[in-house]
Protein 1
Amino acid sequence: MKILLLGCNGQVGWELQRSLAPLGEIIAWGREELNFSDLTSVNEKLASLTPDLIVNAAAYTAVDQAETDIELARLVNSDAVRLLADRALELGIWLIHYSTDYVFDGQKKSAYEESDITSPQSIYGKTKRAGEVAIQSSGCKHLIFRTSWVYARRGGNFAKTMLKLASERDSLKVVSDQVGAPTSAELIADVTALCIVKIFQDQNAATSLSGVYHLAAKGEVSWYQYAQFVLEKAEECTVALKVNSAEVQAIATADYPVPAKRPANSKLSTQKLSEAFRLDMPDWQHHMQRFLSEHLSHYK
């Protein structure tokens, strides 16, 4: 199998290079090889390859910057994605794509299901939803994985930021009225690989499995509780902090204004994914504890 992996240097893309390696030959392209802001180049480069599968982990993810950088966010998250879908349809191959909880308004009390009405409140969310629609309307075979609160060993993330701030500042305030499930890029990549195996084994997959799925860790936590969890683990490892877990202050979203509106509820139900692919998502603490065990070792 020849797999075209796009966005290979991002958090999810980097883990996908590992998880997809046993499945076949990987053509891993980052921004230097395929710039999604240049649609002519995207078309030309896609036409030069005949992969058996396209996995798109490329995206414009600067949520706040997107509020003013509207054109680039649209090009990357929507227009270029439409070209990928068209190419997948032309070749008769599957397209794997990643989306976000930001396609919802965050006002639902329980976990969002795939059938819930989308109502993005930010430019980022609107362009990601437009990318979903482009794939769905193209007619290509596809798996769209919506995920949330993604973190990885590679690059920056909330846990790293909290550890840094707690070691530098005398106080730490964190939003407590937004909830979700921290989801490891490692988990996303591993689940993707398992789903790919399934769709290539199932002769009826094009009709029975093609669609949108929520892919997130199990459970829920607020950003405030998340920060406390991270600092508690740091304390257990005797990492020197100026602010300990008990001293973190809870604040409301209204007290921490940012350009892009965040969903208050980012909980995603993964029942559809679990039933279709016979997978059981681990609790969010599972991968986070592994991440912290590795990351905190550098502080010693």
Protein 2
Amino acid sequence: MLVLQAVEPGSPVTELLLTNDSMMITFILGKLQQHDVTFVQRNDATGAAGLSGIQKMTAALRMMAYGTLADSLDEYLKIGRSTAVESLQSFCRGVISIFEAEYLRKPNEIDTARLLHVGNHRGFPGMLGSLDCMHWQWDKCPTAYHGFFSGRSGKPTIVLEAVASYDLWIWHAFFGMPGSFNDINVLDQSHLFDDLSAGRAPPAHFVVNGSQYSMGYYLADGIYPKWATLVQTISQPQGRKKQHFERMQEACRKDVERAFGILQARWAIVRGPARFWNEVDLGYIMKTCVILHNMIIEDQRDHDASDEITELLSSNPIQVSRDITPALVDFFKNNCRIRSNEAHHSLRNDLIEHLWARNGDEE
């Protein structure tokens, strides 16, 4: 009942809080109360009851879901501006500490097998997702940092690099680079391929057009480098085969852009200009929005389709192995494999032929 009084029906917050017959709010609040005493109701020196955990959590969620100003919560929730801001900060840190390992994890063996299976079904064997960047305008950027954080828009922004899969689950989120950086600069700083370079990532074995490969790849736009782990579209394609590949690649690459759109629609705080001064706080807010986004995606997932994929994987398993090779020589060798221009063109040419043989004649 407290949830329904604090949040409007049909809102993004209600979508999260009423998940699984209103149990999600109780679950998250219980975890937060175990993690941080901020969300435990206490009495003051006079014995009067203080703010409840549900009030503080609702204040944080309203600021995230609607982009509500902290000042506007006083009359509605009886909570002051400073307490609302503190609640948001504590909520974000608590959610990240408790749920990051589960809802912002890197794909494990089972996840990789599922992504490979779906990628093969969509015509891209070996595809693990789509890669792109999103800019979040920083309204309160200190004047001294304006030039460093301002990009093409002329306004200070902070970049989120993300990888999203077919079901809009965000598997990788790297946030904090200034808006003056382009996608290549952000990729050079991110940790997307760290596990693959260190030999900790599960290799993805697949066959395309008769050629065998052992590293999965991400679909990306034309600005990204020509690496073996990135498959770009073709600028000004010549011939029906390349034109067909361009259409198929761009259609699948929209997964990450759709994920960005849903993330911003669900959490208005990352759609509008950021009003916090501290860059660290913005990082916590963005990561929390991604984690809650994945929690909602998991709840809305088609369990019948998931069961079907699991059954197909058990009947026709995809070979995924883990080989830990911490030696420095192997690290450099893996980096060379990742950045191989020759392997990039070979993979893309094989995909062009594979897609054309698969359904090119239907055009």
Protein 3
Amino acid sequence: MQAIGARARLASRLMSRAETAAKNRALLAIAQSLENRSDYLIAENAKDLQAGRAKNLDDAMLDRLALSEKNIGTMADGLRQIAALPDPVGEITGLSYRPSGIQVGKMRVPLGVIGIIYESRPNVTADAAGLCLKSGNACILRGGSESIHSNRAIAAYIRSGLLETGLPEDAVQLIATTDRAAVGELLRLDKHVDVIVPRGGKSLIERIMAESRIPVIKHLDGICHVYIDDKADREKAIRIVLNAKTQRYGVCNALETLLVAEGVAKDILPELAGLLREKGVELRGCARTRALVDACLAATEEDWDTEYLAPILSIRVVAGLDEALEHIHTHSSQHTEAIVTEDYTRARRFLREVDSSSVMVNASTRFADGYEYGLGAEIGISTDKLHARGPVGLEGLTTQKYIVLGDGQIRA
């Protein structure tokens, strides 16, 4: 691990001065390789899926683990989007003259070496590598043992793309061992690694937060809310809730708690509940919800604080916007919240007062994603308030330094 860290540090110095055109060529070459060899990737992924089923991994984990022609194409498209984005490295902003005659501004620069620790999702291997490369960083990738065959195959194509375009092969290194001790060693590489980004379950992220000597960009839970206001468009509300909850279950931006204003609950909830049940969603509700929805289970206090990652939805009828905001303030994980309303003033208030990394008006929470935000891909989602917040793309993987331009000035 020390040797991997040292190689990554050297590669990061080379990457920090790499030309944009070279980085883009590498990204496009990697994307093409992934698509050209998708059959091989799917075959390697099948080994991981078979092992996962033998270990009785749950459906949400297997869903995140699976590769198909479609999501391999999405990985490749993400890399192409990253290549098409402006290169943030070297951007100078805020340049202004001081009374002394010097000019002071800020330049955007890479973070350096980024360690990414993740579970299940093999697409993270490509997404993370692509973002780190375009932002001029080196990265050390440590995927979960459940996706080892998939990750090795993807990483091999990434490294060949780097070699093909003259960039340092060690700019992307995959830790090939499944030994959990490697994670602990990575978290202690503070001389070589500048930031750690975890992607995985709560237990993994809690461990990293407890053990890391290195700053961490992370989120713990995705307890996402949709509030249907009594000024909502009925059809929009139904469409948004169904998508937010059922488009995919095992993702951090899926809807987990639905809040409905009492003024429209009687009109919307029975039909909405029926549509959710048709898709196999288990409903757990407050007393007012259960009075309107047949065979709805009673929600407990624990339900309001649970990220299900499964076809389960908590529902609460609230008096109005104030009670909805109070519920979100109490139970939100500060990931993503949405309001459905046609009232501009209420929408503005929701945007202003909800303290989450993504806040939406009349849109599904499933849009809280780097690809959908136009970032090309995301290395993760941060609910922290320092450095990066929300989907972390290219800008989140850079920092700024002050620059001073002078013409012989000295300080009196």
